[in-house]
Each structure stands twice: as structure tokens, then as C-alpha cells.
């Protein structure tokens, strides 16, 4: 597709219509704007990223391992998109920067996944339960965000893999029931 070849910013709806052999008016029958086309592409990419994340955490035996795998999978999937589909990565960056609906839905899905992992860890006795759940979810999301948000990830690519491991380990120490017994 044109976005993948020329990038989102440089592509017009007319370019897309011409490339697929249709009129601009015909394309507008299905999409009301260039952003609408970009949102479909963005949604498809985010679904692929979440499939990678879900596969990574699916067989994890503990909540701690799920959190580690979540960090690693997000960093790897985002880095892979940056290095292998740079023009499509640009769409993801625009979507994040302009807070398109697919980007907001992806953020909400990540928060929900973090919440599920925390609840599982609390129910099993693996994680402390004193910190309000919403506060813990938001804190973990904020630590994870530089590796989940394409705009921020581009500045963290050289450390993404090691940072995912270090940050998840640090978070797990803070979530541990044992680290809060003296508080």
C-alpha cells in the first residue's frame, strides 16, 4: 500500500485511489478521510502486536512471569515494527501523537491486561495488595509506556530490550508482598 511505501504524511487519498485503480470518489465511499484509512491500518497493526503479547504471556506460569513477558513482547514488537515496517511505524506514531481511537483503545487494552495480571498476582499471594489497584495499574503503564508508545519508543530503541528486563524486574520487586511487610 502507498502508506507503506511513501509514508502516511506524504500520501494523499488520491495517491491511494490511483494505486489501487479506483477513483478518489470511490475510495471516499468506504473511508471518509485519509485518517480513516490510517486508522484501519493502525488497528490491524495493533491487533498483530497484541496477538504477539497474548501469545507471549499465555503460557506464563505466574503473574510475575506474565508481567516480564508483557514488557519484553511490547518492546520487541514495537522495535520490530520500527525497523522492518518504518513507513507503517510512521502511521502508528501519528496515531499515538494525535490520539486516534485505535491508539486509545490499545492503551486501554494494555491497562486492562496489566490490571488482570495484578489481580492474578494479588489473588495468588504473589503481589502485595495495599497499593490501590488503579494506582498500581497506572504506575506500571507509565513505566511501560516508553516501550509501548511509538513516539517514545523511537528514542529508546537502543535500550528497549535491556530496559524491558530491568524495569519489569524492578517493578516486580516493588509489587512483592515481602517488600511491603515492614511498611
How would you describe this protein?
It is built from ten helices and no strands. It has a single domain, classed as Tetracycline Repressor, domain 2, CATH 1.10.357.10. By secondary structure, the protein is mostly helical. The mean pLDDT is 84. It has helices at 2-6, 13-20, 24-30, 34-58, 63-84, 86-97, 101-123, 133-148, 150-153, 160-175.
Shape: elongated
What CATH calls the topology is Tetracycline Repressor, domain 2
Question: How far is the first residue's CA from the last residue's CA?
Answer: 56 Å
Structural class label: mainly alpha
Overall residue-averaged pLDDT value: 84
* Proportion in β-strands: under 5%
Find the CATH superfamily.
Answer: Tetracycline Repressor, domain 2
Number of helices: 10
Number of strands: 0
- CA-atom Rg in angstroms: 19 Å
Label this structure with key terms.
mainly alpha; 10 helices; Tetracycline Repressor, domain 2; 183 residues; single chain
Secondary-structure blueprint:
Elements lengths: L1 H5 L6 H8 L3 H7 L3 H25 L4 H22 L1 H12 L3 H23 L9 H16 L1 H4 L6 H16 L8
Helix pairs in contact: 2-3, 4-5, 4-6, 4-7, 5-6, 5-7, 5-10, 7-8, 8-10
Amino acid at each position: 500500500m502507498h502508506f507503506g511505501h511513501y509514508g502516511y504524511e506524504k500520501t494523499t487519498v488520491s495517491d491511494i485511489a490511483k494505486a489501487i485503480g479506483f477513483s478518489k470518489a470511490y475510495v471516499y465511499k468506504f473511508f471518509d478521510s485519509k485518517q480513516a484509512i490510517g486508522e484501519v491500518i493502525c488497528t490491524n497493526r495493533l491487533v498483530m502486536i497484541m496477538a504477539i503479547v497474548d501469545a507471549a504471556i499465555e503460557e506464563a506460569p505466574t503473574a510475575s512471569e506474565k508481567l516480564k513477558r508483557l514488557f519484553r513482547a511490547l518492546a520487541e514488537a514495537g522495535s520490530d515494527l520500527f525497523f522492518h515496517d518504518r513507513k507503517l511505524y510512521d502511521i502508528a506514531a501519528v496515531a499515538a501523537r494525535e490520539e486516534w481511537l485505535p491508539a486509545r483503545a490499545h492503551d486501554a487494552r494494555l491497562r486492562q491486561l496489566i490490571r488482570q495480571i495484578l489481580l492474578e498476582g494479588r489473588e495468588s499471594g504473589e503481589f502485595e495488595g495495599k497499593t490501590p489497584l488503579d494506582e498500581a495499574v497506572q504506575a506500571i503503564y507509565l513505566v511501560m509506556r516508553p516501550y509501548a508508545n511509538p513516539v517514545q519508543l523511537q528514542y529508546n530503541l537502543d535500550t528497549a530490550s535491556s530496559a524491558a528486563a530491568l524495569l519489569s524486574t524492578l517493578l516486580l520487586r516493588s509489587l512483592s508482598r515481602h517488600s511491603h511487610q515492614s511498611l
